[in-house]
Amino acid sequence: MSISVATNLSLIRSQIPDNVKLVAVSKTKPVEDILQAYNAGQRLFGENRVQEIVRKKDLLPDDIEWHMIGHLQSNKVKSIVSFISMIQSVDSVNLLNVINSEAAKKERIVDCLLELYIASEETKSGFSMEELETALESGKISELKNIRICGLMGMATFTNDEARVRGEFRYLNETFVRLKERYFKNEIFFREISMGMSGDYRIAIGEGSTMIRVGSLIFGERNTNKQQNG
Ligand SMILES: *Cc1c(COP(=O)(O)O)cnc(C)c1O
pTM for the whole thing? Predict the structure, then answer.
């Protein structure tokens, strides 16, 4: 049975407020599926592997905005820096430095989100709260002129425990508010809280998400082989 990407998209769109952006997570899916979403008006897509994003980008329309949402190795930044719209998965100061210098070479300013580790699973990546505070307190991040920190990204624990997921999203939102006040007060670009996936986007929106990243609800289940990153 074929899945109607357009139908899935319009169903999700009908359920989210206008101010929440929908990132269609197309990892592992063929360009034909992405084109179906594109033809249904979707322009914002998320991928988690550099190789895959580079390959797909060349086969698809130029007005697609690509977001990198998976762990990014610093030696691969230069492959995507010329076209990427946003890197959501920034999880170290070193990576920020590399993005900044590669962006400078291309005379670009690259939008980034700082990924905060909010889940209780050890497999999830991101800054710890302490690492993030240390990095921001040092003042070094604000010196990087070819990146723009647009907010925070986080992934909740994969669990049916709704209260737990809600609590983690709430924590991300509270952290956003606190960091905004302390480090980004006059930065109009610091305004995104990227949280919520197929299984928990309703909860995330309830807790103030501005950007949800939805894959399987749009494109169908992925092959269950473990996702590779980078
Ligand atoms: C795969 C992925 C998603 C989408 O997951 P679904 O459950 O298929 O909606 C969202 N965010 C990140 C970081 C991902 O890797």
Answer: 0.95
